[in-house]
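>> received
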Amino acid sequence: LEQIGASGICVEEIAGDFSAPPKVEMGHLAFPCFKASKNLQKKPVELAQELCGLLQSQFAKVQVAGPYLNLFLSSQQLGEGVVSSLLDGSSLRPPSLSMAPILIEYS
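>> returned
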């Protein structure tokens, strides 16, 4: 983040912005650059292009799709993620539910 002048943004702030793209052909992860570009006072498309150049060596493939950055993982990266989650037991834990109480009224 420091390479693009984003030393004021912490990784935890933008980590929640990553999501799975709507189509498999678009990659394994998608990152919308809207929030980060606002904090950096840059256009989302410009930030996506800048990040693409910086992340090329970290992923199998990186594509810019307008203000979105599409990331493709290699088979090795996917395998390492699965193995590490199995070894640390995180894949076996039930997901944490942090939902607000739900009120159900009967008439």
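>> The longest strand covers residues 61-65.
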